[in-house]
Amino acid sequence: MRPPPPYWKRFEELAPGLLTATEAQDSAAALARYRSLTDPERTLLTTGQWPPAAAVWITTANGPSWLDHEEAATHPATRSVQRLP
Questions:
Q1: How far apart are CA 2 and CA 25, in angstroms?
Q2: What are the angstrom distances between the C-alpha of 65 and each of 2, 22, 27, 75?
Q3: Which of 1, 38, 62, 82 is the most buried (most CB within 10 A)?
Q4: CB atoms < 10 A from the CB of 33, how many?
Q5: Domain spans of the chain?
Q6: Is residue 56 classed as helix, strand or coil in its secondary structure?
Q7: pTM
């Protein structure tokens, strides 16, 4: 296995800015951007009240996950969805 830096260089060539750190976004904006967030992801990437009003909560084998409402409309996991109050 190669050390990570050569991979990082290639990632930057293929998708400039991909590895650039970004500031945390409002929770609704972050969920709309990423389409789904796990609990660890949302603590790292969002600010403000969680979950956003239109978020759809699903249970996964690795813990809770939230889907953007547009993503939830077609996501197979929403067949047995539980919505947060």
A1: 33
A2: 32, 21, 14, 12
A3: 38
A4: 12
A5: 25-85
A6: strand
A7: 0.67
